[in-house]
Amino acid sequence: MSGMRPTGRLHLGNYWGALKNWVDLQEAYQCYFAVASWHMLTTGYDDTSSLLENEREMVLDWLGAGLDPGKAVIFRQSDVTEHAELALLLGMITPLSWLENNPTWKEQLQELAKSKREKMLASGPTQEAQPREAEAREELRTHGFLGYPVLQAADILMYGAEVVPVGQDQLPHLELSREIARKFNGLYGEGTLTVPQPLLTETPKLPGIDGRKMSKSYGNAIDMLETTESLSKKVMAAYTDPTRLRATDPGHPEPCPENPPGCSVYALHKLYNTDWPRRGDECRAGHIGCVACKKLLLPPLEAGFAKFRERRASYASQPGRVEQVLDEGRKKAKAAAERTLEKVRRAMRLR
Ligand code: TRP
Ligand code: SF4
User: What are 76's strand-pairing partners?
Assistant: First the structure.
């Protein structure tokens, strides 16, 4: 079981960091993949106008990448309202200290408060930065946001998930899911809930086109859906190795003290071009210029995008297809969720 918040179109960081793994796992496991709409609300409750559109775009990227609704259960969290009941019940046994000490929460609160303040400042008079940051923090200190990991625990425990494919950043959340499951079993009966294991994606490091971490908010991402033109434009402008002034200067393709983030073009060669070791050797020897090296990346990169584009477009062109996928997923997820909830209600002597 895994999920993603519907932030809209995905980028290559999302693909190589998580989605690729999901596509592989659906062959070996019964998988449940949730569009985590309610998790989106934990921080984005003040503007929900693009939620549905973002869900659709994300699901299209999932399907384009090869998630198969015939194999995996693909559903919207908010369609399976059983998640709310389980989250409520798990909330009863979750001490506040577990949530308040969650490093992800503390970090996110800080980050979000900072960016909200910046937005406020950009749109108004620029005094009172401190009070505004405090105000933004208060806006985000909601019951829902603090309870984010409880809702996530409900997602996971609902399907008796044995493994949860996630990135490093989700480990604190997953540890909380495990603790909540153990506490529940201790109180109401061993074996009622399955204690999940993280399945860490070995995330190949994929920097954005400016050398920083690839992120939608930095504007440095290569989207999964790029046209031939936009793709080539981004690659030709991408960060390489600032120590190279001439094509004959020895280059540093890998992250190293001379080029700490590493060349972002080389990172893509490694993922898309079977000939990547040669590019690295030529670069280190000063036998190739960055422009030539970038041009050699375009054909294999384009080939990798072509299959995705075609599959995505086919789903997008069938009227009501995405809705149909989510509807079938909802039915399957609901059936499984109802079984778990019945077990939980009985264990807690609510039935
Ligand atoms: N918190 C996850 C993220 O931000 C999204 C998520 C929601 C999730 N429910 C989940 C991940 C269940 C794994 C399992 O990416
Ligand atoms: Fe990067 Fe290629 Fe330039 Fe080397 S030659 S720095 S690998 S773009």
Answer: 35
